[in-house]
Amino acid sequence: MGPISGNTEISVFGKGFHEQNAKYRLLFKVGNKWEEADSTNVVYVNNTEFKTRTPNFRKYGSKNVDVYIMIDEDLVSVTKTNYHFFIDTKCEKSCAYGPGLHFEQNCGEDTVFIINARDEEGNNRTSGRDDWKVSICNKETKGKIDHKLVDNHDGT
What are the sequence ranges of the domains in the chain? Predict the structure, then answer.
């Protein structure tokens, strides 16, 4: 699973990735069209794994696609797996709520707030994998407050 903007590093697991110098290609099938991961970014890890980055999928939008492997210029693999491209999260469309955002907090007490991630179209995200940068400061001293950020893998 990754954003339609692509460039998400993914690991591909299988058998027979035996040559470090082989050309490994990852193909994403959308209907009768094929999109290829950038083969210049393929990194051979070992005989059961290689890594690459997903292609830009903006022209197709949010989709579940079939993924195939091609080694060198041989036939495309018979077996496939699936991958889901989701619409990118847009910070400006997302919102935060909860008691941790109120100024009337007790010092030294744990509290929480929730970031509800939304995509570019304003729809609630239903998966995680977003990189949020959160900074919490003391209102009076302006000092930063340590915090723990938790991804619930459901868009919050």
Answer: 2-86, 89-156
pTM over 0.85: no
Q: Residue 119: exposed, middle, or buried by beta-carbon count in 10 A (0-12, 13-18, 19+)? A: buried
Using alpha carbons only, what angle is made at residue 14 by residues 75 and 3, rounded to the nearest 5 degrees? 90
The class (CATH top level) of 2-86 is mainly beta
Residue-wise burial string across 123-140, b where 16 or more C-beta atoms lie within 10 A, e elsewhere: eebebeeeeeeeeeeeee
Cα dist from 28 to 16, 22, 53, 76, whole Å = 20, 19, 12, 11
Q: What is the mean pLDDT of each run of 10 residues along the chain (156 residues)?
A: 88 81 84 85 86 90 88 78 87 89 75 87 82 81 85 82
